[in-house]
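PROTEIN–LIGAND DATA SHEET

This sheet pairs a single protein chain with one bound small molecule, zinc ion, given as SMILES. Inputs appear in the order they were entered. The predicted three-dimensional arrangement of chain and ligand is reported afterwards as a C-alpha cell string under its own label.
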Amino acid sequence: MDTKKKNIKESSIQDALFEIGGELAYKLYKVLKGKENVDELIIADKLKISLNSLRNLIYKFDQYNLLSSTRKKDRKKGWYIYYFTLNQRYIEDLIVKLKDEKIKKLEKKLEREELHEFYKCVNKCIRMNIENAMETNFMCPECGSLLELEDQEKNIIKLKKSIEELKA
Ligand SMILES: [Zn+2]
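PREDICTION REPORTED AS:
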C-alpha cells in the first residue's frame, strides 16, 4: 500500500487536505494512514470530536473518494458502527484536481487583468473597472480621493509566475 505514494510529498498531502477540511482533515488522514477498517468511535476519540463532526468531515473526504467504508451492527447497542479505510491512491488525484482548479482560477483572473483596465483609489480603499469608475466620476466613494489607472503589469507578472509555479 505504501509503495504507491513514494512520489507524493507529505507537505503536498497536508496542503491538499487542509484545503478540503482544515487541520482536522489532515489529522484524520494521519489516524487512518497505513491502517484498515478503523472504527469510527476510535477516530472520533482520537480527533477529540463528536461523531456528528466526524461525519461532516467524512462527507468531505467522500467527495474525493478518499475513503472506503464498511459497517457492522453492534449487537449489544443495536446500531451500526462504521469502519473506514483510506484510499491512498486517490490522494494523488485530489492533489492534481485541487491544483488544476487553482490554475484555472488564476488563468481566469489573468484573463480579466489582461482584458480590462482597473482604477484604484490612491489611498487603496477601492479598485473598480472603468464603468464603475465613470459612475463615480473617478472619485473614491469611500474617501473622495481621485481614482487613478492602475499599473496592472505587476499583477499580471505575479499571476503568470504563480501559474507557472503550479504547473511545474
Ligand atoms: Zn479612497
